[in-house]
Amino acid sequence: MKITTTLVAAAALLGLAACNQNPTENKADQIEANAENTADVIEANADNAADNLQANAENTADAVRDAGDNKADAVRNGATNAN
Q1: Which pLDDT tens digit goes with each residue over 3-58?
Q2: Cα(first)–Cα(last) distance of the chain, in Å?
Q3: How far apart, in whole angstroms, are the C-alpha atoms of residue 4 and residue 31?
Q4: How far apart are CA 55 and CA 23, in angstroms?
Q5: CB < 8 Å & 24+ apart, contacts of 50-54
Q6: Are 43 and 70 in contact (CB under 8 A)?
Q7: Per the structure, how many domains does the chain have?
Q8: Cα–Cα distance, 22 to 4 (Å, whole number)
Q9: Is a pLDDT exceeding 90 seen at residue 1?
Q10: Contact status, residue 3 vs residue 44, Cβ threshold 8 Å
Q11: Rounded CA gap, 57 and 41, in Å?
Q12: pLDDT at 19
């Protein structure tokens, strides 16, 4: 959503800016807008990767805790059944 909003805003600004500019200035503005959009995508991808990495780490930690709890319960149940 953030990327789409940025792209729409950049396109609107370019459209308005193009009204009173020469072709060279329009081309330079387009280069800047493209670079800005690319940078925004890179940042969004990094944010998504970090979020995914954190979620995966939390899920793995939860799985380790659950496995430990299950093993401990099995030991307790085995000890109870042996008595």
Answers
A1: 666 666 666 666 665 567 899 999 999 999 999 999 999 999 999 999 999 999 99
A2: 61
A3: 18
A4: 48
A5: none
A6: no
A7: 1
A8: 28
A9: no
A10: yes
A11: 24
A12: 64
